[in-house]
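Board notes (copied after class):
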Amino acid sequence: MTVLLIFTASKKITLRMPQRNDENTKREAGRKKDHLIFFICLLLAASFWMLIKMSDVYSVSYRMKIKYTHLPKGRLITALKDSSATVHFKSNGYNLLYLILHRQLDSLKIDLRECEIKRGPDNAYFINTANIRESTAQKLGVNDRDLEFSKSRLYFTLERLHRTRLKVFAVLDLGFKSQFRLYGYKIEPKEVTVYGPKKILDTLKTLRTVTVHRENLEQNQTVMADIKNPFPGMLKLFPSKVKILLNVEKYTEGTIQVPVDVSGIKPTIRTFPATVTINFNVFIRDYEKVHPGQFKVVPDIKNIDLRTVKKLRLQMISQPKDISNARIVPPEVEFIIVN
């Protein structure tokens, strides 16, 4: 009898445990459902609040940079006394959000064809902001009656354009493969037209390109390079780019025997050796053009007493323009005084 009671009790416990787990699962599911409903309600409430706020009308002020377009022919704005203007206007939240996201409030473009340009004091010009209120309102998507400028006038300096022709030089930073070097380069066009105020043009003699970087060159190249504008806001360059034709050639090492010229030295001397070797680099195409008569090697006797020294250092006072890295071997010679 005792055993039966124990078995029965154990059986009852086994049957009740799954019921408790089911109840806990239902409670947990209920709590998650409540949280989800709360989150959805919160999201809906926030959305409705946002919609209501976006529908409201706000009075705002923005400082906008001035950018002028379509200047009078032959004229250039050289200075802006009023480089920015504060604009006050009313707009709903939707339009404000659009203007901010599309950066429409960063700058204000003013078409001078639509404005009456008036002459002010000290060679300054100005436009009345009342003349651009309607066009500005259209750009901002607001009513022109709800828009005002903080200034009634916008001042700038307007000067007549002059022009000149300036030669362009290339700025090169080139690296070459072994035994290759720049033979020369051409620029097309060699000169460009520069427009700007006369007082600035008078200070310019030439123009330069931006630095052209190239590495491991072994053949000709054509490069388009921008011309560096020394006064970007004041000058206009036509064209603003040039074509640089790089002529890359292979070079070789050459040697040649040249006599030491002592004809201009008094007292008369004789050197040992009487001839020296010139080692040099030369482009292969120019190798046959090099001959001894193009070189002149003389002893350096400046501030030297010939009776107190035994050797003279040699110097090359002329050489072909087509060679480079010329070295005299030996660099010094012994001598005797003949007369």
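Comment from the instructor: The chain has three domains: 57-160, 163-249, 260-337. Confidence is low (pLDDT under 50) at residues 1-15.
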